[in-house]
Amino acid sequence: MSRKSVPPVAAKPSPLHPRNRHQQRYDFAALTAVCPDLAGFIRLTPKGNHSIDFTDPQAIKALNRALLQHWYQIENWDIPAGYLCPPIPGRADYIHYLADLLATANGGKQPAGKRIQVLDIGCGANCIYPLIGSSEYGWQFVAADIEAASLASAERILAANPALQQKISLRQQPDAQRCFTHIVQPDDYLDLTLCNPPFHESVEQMVRGNQRKWQNLGKWDEQKEASAEQLNFGGQSNELWCEGGELAFISRMMRESAGYASQVYWFTSLVSKQANLPLLEKVLKEVGAVQQQVVAMAQGQKNSRFIAWSFLNPEQQKIWRQMRWHSRV
């Protein structure tokens, strides 16, 4: 079986994916209409615009709750204090570009509905990718995490949204060194896997990164005496760092994925550092991936990307699509 590279879905980054619902400035009037508690966090900027303090975890949480309710009809979203509170627009971009990845071999049409099965590796307490993916495309998700507390939080979110309980199932990973073992069952066939891996290599690197965030926001003087936990914008240690950082984590994931070659159509992972791509592509060559591509994304001034790989050749993928996406059975 020969290894084949295919052209990237997006040649160059754009501000946000065209289908992303968050193209415009936040409509705080509409958001506070569905989530009144957001009103207490809204402030006027020096330019006279409404905004929130993006260094305030409670303000960010209230904004996320309002965005999810307004745009995705997700009720009562919440996470415990100290857990990662993700920016919704960027998370939605990953989902939309994944849909495009499937569409490249489906006549340009994004496959939707419960036939599409997706695994989120490390769903966290926020469960954000399954929430957006199931709401936007009707996909079925397996949301996996190593932390019981994160899964308990995700369970509370699903309990508040009964319609999503049939679309999202939760599974706990007992081994922090594994991504697929213990989670992917023998009768599972997944059209996509996705992952937002921990990208710091150590607690010290994580703290330095947080210091740069505060400096960029002009608030470092206010935080010089704060602890590492206070400096952080949210996130538990397993969400933010691991030994070897994202390069080690994704490399390990890629090597493990070879054992599930026939059960997954596309494996994917976000990659925060572009410099890691050549090394990751080398790992894919070593493990025998047949197809791979890098999909470019951008949110504002930030460029990002994910890497996708498959062990199925084009003919095998065609058979997969015929049996799983187009079958009327």
TrEMBL record:
It is an enzyme of class 2 (transferase). It is found in: Cytoplasm. This is Ribosomal RNA large subunit methyltransferase F. Specifically methylates the adenine in position 1618 of 23S rRNA. The lineage of its organism: Bacteria, Pseudomonadati, Pseudomonadota, Gammaproteobacteria, Oceanospirillales. Belongs to the methyltransferase superfamily. METTL16/RlmF family. GO terms for molecular function: methyltransferase activity. Its EC number is 2.1.1.181.
